[in-house]
C-alpha cells in the first residue's frame, strides 16, 4: 500500500483536494482533526501536556482548554515547539494504527498542514503539495474566517514553511490557483497511485 501525504499552507485548499480523493474511495487521515482527538483521549499525552503547561490545560470536566493552551504558546516559539514535540509522536502512532486498518487499499492519504515541519513526511512514500498564490489565499481566508484580519492571516502564513519550500520538497503539485481545473489533476494522480507498485 502506498502512503501519500498532502500538504499546503493555510488557504491553499488542501481539504477540498482531499475530499476529491475521498470521493474516489481513497481513505483520508486528517492529521489536524486526529491531533485534537488524540489530545483529548490519549492519557499519556494528556499527562505530558499537563506537566508541560499546567493543570489548567484541561478543564475540570476533562476537556482540552484550547484557548488556554493557545494563550500559553502564542508568540512563544519555544513553547510551540515543545507542544508540537509532545503531540506529533502520538499523532504519528495514531496514523500508523489507522493505516494498518486500510492495508487492502492501493493507497491512502495523510492530510497535514505541517507535514514537513512535523517531520511526518517520513511516514509517507510521496507528498502532494497544494499550491495557491498568496493574494488568492488571503482573499479566501478573509471570506472563510470572518473573525480574522488580513494581518492575522499574514502572521499565520509567516509562521509556516514557505510555499516555495513545500513545492521543492514535494514529489507532486496540485495547482488550486483559479487558473487550472483541479479535478483532472486529482484524477491523473489517482490513476498513477492506483497502479503504483510499492
From TrEMBL:
<comment type="similarity">
    <text>Belongs to the CoaE family.</text>
</comment>
<comment type="function">
    <text>Catalyzes the phosphorylation of the 3'-hydroxyl group of dephosphocoenzyme A to form coenzyme A.</text>
</comment>
<dbReference type="InterPro" id="IPR027417">
    <property type="entry name" value="P-loop_NTPase"/>
</dbReference>
<protein>
    <recommendedName>
        <fullName>Dephospho-CoA kinase</fullName>
        <ecNumber>2.7.1.24</ecNumber>
    </recommendedName>
</protein>
<keyword id="KW-0173">Coenzyme A biosynthesis</keyword>
<comment type="pathway">
    <text>Cofactor biosynthesis; coenzyme A biosynthesis; CoA from (R)-pantothenate: step 5/5.</text>
</comment>
<dbReference type="GO" id="GO:0005737">
    <property type="term" value="C:cytoplasm"/>
</dbReference>
<keyword id="KW-0963">Cytoplasm</keyword>
<keyword id="KW-0808">Transferase</keyword>
<dbReference type="Pfam" id="PF01121">
    <property type="entry name" value="CoaE"/>
</dbReference>
<dbReference type="GO" id="GO:0005524">
    <property type="term" value="F:ATP binding"/>
</dbReference>
<dbReference type="GO" id="GO:0015937">
    <property type="term" value="P:coenzyme A biosynthetic process"/>
</dbReference>
<keyword id="KW-0418">Kinase</keyword>
<feature type="binding site">
    <location>
        <begin position="11"/>
        <end position="16"/>
    </location>
    <ligand>
        <name>ATP</name>
    </ligand>
</feature>
<keyword id="KW-0067">ATP-binding</keyword>
<keyword id="KW-0547">Nucleotide-binding</keyword>
<dbReference type="InterPro" id="IPR001977">
    <property type="entry name" value="Depp_CoAkinase"/>
</dbReference>
<dbReference type="GO" id="GO:0004140">
    <property type="term" value="F:dephospho-CoA kinase activity"/>
</dbReference>
Amino acid at each position: 500500500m502506498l502512503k501519500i501525504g498532502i500538504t499546503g499552507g493555510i488557504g491553499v485548499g488542501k481539504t477540498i483536494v482531499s475530499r476529491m480523493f475521498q470521493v474516489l474511495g481513497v481513505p483520508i487521515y486528517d492529521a489536524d482533526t486526529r491531533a485534537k482527538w488524540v489530545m483529548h483521549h490519549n492519557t499519556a499525552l494528556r499527562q505530558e501536556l499537563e506537566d508541560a503547561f499546567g493543570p489548567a490545560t484541561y478543564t475540570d470536566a476533562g476537556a482540552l482548554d484550547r484557548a488556554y493552551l493557545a494563550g500559553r504558546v502564542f508568540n512563544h516559539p519555544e513553547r510551540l515547539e515543545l507542544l508540537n514535540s509532545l503531540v506529533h509522536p502520538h499523532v504519528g502512532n495514531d496514523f500508523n494504527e489507522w493505516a494498518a486498518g486500510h492495508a487492502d487499499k492501493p493507497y491512502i492519504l495523510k492530510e497535514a498542514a505541517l507535514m514537513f515541519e512535523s517531520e511526518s513526511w517520513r511516514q509517507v512514500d510521496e507528498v502532494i503539495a497544494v499550491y495557491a498564490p498568496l493574494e488568492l489565499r488571503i482573499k479566501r481566508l478573509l471570506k472563510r474566517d470572518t473573525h480574522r484580519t488580513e494581518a492575522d492571516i499574514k502572521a499565520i502564513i509567516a509562521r509556516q514553511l514557505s510555499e516555495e519550500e513545500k513545492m521543492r520538497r514535494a514529489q507532486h503539485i496540485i495547482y488550486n490557483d483559479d487558473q487550472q481545473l483541479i479535478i483532472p489533476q486529482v484524477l491523473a494522480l489517482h490513476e498513477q497511485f492506483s497502479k503504483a507498485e510499492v
